[in-house]
Amino acid sequence: MTVLVGVAEVGAPELLRQLDRVLALNGRHLLLAAIIGGHGRAEVELVRGALLRRPLPGHRSDALQAADRAAVAAALEEAAATATALGVTAETAVAEGDPGPELVRLARQHSCEAVVVGARPGPGAVAAGPHSLGRTARFVLDHAPCPVVLLRR
Q1: Which of 32, 39, 24 shows the shortest CA–CA distance to 115?
Q2: DSSP of 67-126
Q3: CA–CA distances in Å: residue 40 to residues 37, 48, 62, 97, 99
Q4: Which of 59, 60, 94 shows the shortest CA–CA distance to 74?
Q5: pLDDT category, 65, cuts 50, 70, 90?
Q6: What is the pLDDT of residue 59?
Q7: Does residue 42 have a pLDDT over 60?
Q8: Is residue 106 within 8 Å of residue 95, measured between CB atoms?
C-alpha cells in the first residue's frame, strides 16, 4: 500500500526519518508529494496589491513560478534520496493549487493507506495545541479519506 507524504521546501529528510521511527516503512511504498502555488504567492500578491496598488508584472510572476518549481524539485529530490537511504521505494508527484485540497485529492487518486503531514515547522512553530497546525495540516486532518499521521518536529 502507498503512504502519501506531504513534502515542504525544507525538512523532508527529518520528517521521513521521524516517520520511519514511528511507522516502520520497510515494505511500504511512499508517494512524496509537493504542491506548487499555495499560500506564498497569494501572500506576495496581497502585500504587493496593498502597497503598490498594481499587479505583479508578468515577468516577475514567471520568475516566482520558476523559483517555486526549482524549490519543489530540489525538495523532492532530497526526500527521494532520503527514502532510498531508508530502503523504501518512493515516487514523486507535483501538483499545483491549494496544498490541503491537492494532498487530499492525491490521497484519493492513489488510494493511499495514510497521509503524513508535519505540524507547523520553523521559527513560527508553537507548542502543541490548536494553533500548532497550519492551514494545510488542518485541511488534511479534516478531509483525508484515510488515516492521517501528524508529525511534530
Answers
A1: 32
A2: HHHHHHHHHHHHHHHHHHHTT-EEEEEEEEE-HHHHHHHHHHHTT-SEEEEEPS-STT--
A3: 7, 12, 14, 11, 11
A4: 94
A5: confident
A6: 65
A7: no
A8: yes
- Mean pLDDT computed over 127-142: 85
Determine the residue type at 98.
D
Instruction: Please answer whether residues 19 and 31 qualify as being in contact, where contact means their C-beta atoms are separated by less than 8 angstroms.
Output: no
pLDDT at 131: 74
Q: Which residues pair with 149 in a beta bridge?
A: 116
Which value, in Å, is the radius of gyration of the alpha carbons in the chain? 16
The three-class DSSP label of residue 146 is coil
Looking at residue 145, the DSSP 8-state letter turns out to be S
Is the Cβ–Cβ distance between 146 and 112 less than 8 Å? yes
